[in-house]
Amino acid sequence: MTDVKFPGGFDLTGLMVLVIGAQQGIGRSVAETCAAQGARLVLADMEEPSGPARVIESRFETVIVTKACDIADRSAVEALAAELHDAGTAPNAIALTAGVTRYNDWIESPADTWDQDVNQIFDVNMKGPINVARAFLPHMQAVGWGRFVLVGSIAGRMGGVTSQPHYAASKGGVHAMTRLLAAKYARSGVLVNAVAPGPTRTRMTENREINTEAYPLGRLLETEDIAWPITFLLSPACSGMVGAILDVNGGIVFS
Q1: Mean pLDDT of the chain
Q2: CATH homologous superfamily for 16-248?
């Protein structure tokens, strides 16, 4: 175990942060908030997120490594972990923001559509985090310091607002996985937590009829509303938080 020392509080200076799902949405906002806090960044997505990286580099005068990776593919995730380790850019902290949903009706849709939707959602939303945990957490454990932040959902709390059951089940699985990993790795200095967003202005909510008048906050959340809590969980400041699932949902659900 290495004696790792980083600045305290919310300062991410010196930390190498891997953001998975950084091309757009919450992941892109997390990359920006982490850069604002001084982190070094590796950004990954299905397609290499070079566009967002160049914008963030220019804004924050930093250098960012970009990678393409399908987290549903175990071998691809393992190859990414090995490549980053060999290059000296193994992450101290990981924000796993990648996720998918489908809105086809689970009863009325053709069987082939249902099968395809279920397989893709479970592959990305559940198998993906397992692949990432298997590939990266043992190294963090050996170092003796780490942060791993997953993204659940209000759907994992109460079924969601416009969600189908396969998406809700996948996010409930993320919540359970967060607690299991947190219990396993906490004593090694690797802290695992999650956020559970409510309806957020991303590609997932485009063209969806969501009545925000019924919500205490009265609006859709913005990606920055989710990114800052994730950035906190990536920081040394959350040193006492283990297995927490932060509800960032505008007051739809209190827990």
Answers
A1: 91
A2: NAD(P)-binding Rossmann-like Domain (3.40.50.720)
